[in-house]
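Human: Cast an eye over this sequence-structure pair and say how the chain folds.
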Amino acid sequence: MENFIFIDFEGKMNLPPSFVGILFAGEFKQIILTDTLLGCVGPTKVTYQPLKEFLQETLDLADKHQTKICAFSTLERDVFLKNGIPEIEKYYFNAHKELKKWFKVKQRDKRPRPFSLSNVLLFFEYPLVSYGYRKASKRIKDMEDALRTHNQSYANVTPVVKGKWTKVLNYNKQDVVGMKFALERIHV
């Protein structure tokens, strides 16, 4: 698991992901995957890459290092499949499934309910910060709207919207780093 590629997509329901958090070889980065958020590139330390290019590059990285692409749900795998990359099946590792199996065998009575990443992290005493329940999509939409209004000028976005954007970036990083933390606790 040490060399797994950990990913977590963020975006609006039923649409392609807006950005991704990725952790590999000790390096964490966030990549914008849509041109509606280009104004964030630079000022918020995110980079840009078209979605299909990111997907193929991530698959190539997994192949080169003979490792897995790990996510907490099947959503990430499904994005690869919807974009014509069936090879993901060879490299995909479902952290949700693995953690659930561990709880069923080792901690059946203490299994978090509902079974969510945040509840798993609380069980393992991860220093979890609450960023609000199901706020990511709204925060992304708010930033997209503000950037559209200001012709992609991040400097002209209000401090409130910038704060929301910072929270969604922090939330994403917490999920990616936390997922690795949880899997380390069960010795994957």
The longest helix spans residues 159-185. Helices lie at 51-65, 75-82, 88-91, 95-106, 117-123, 136-149, 159-185. The longest strand covers residues 5-10. The mean pLDDT is 95.
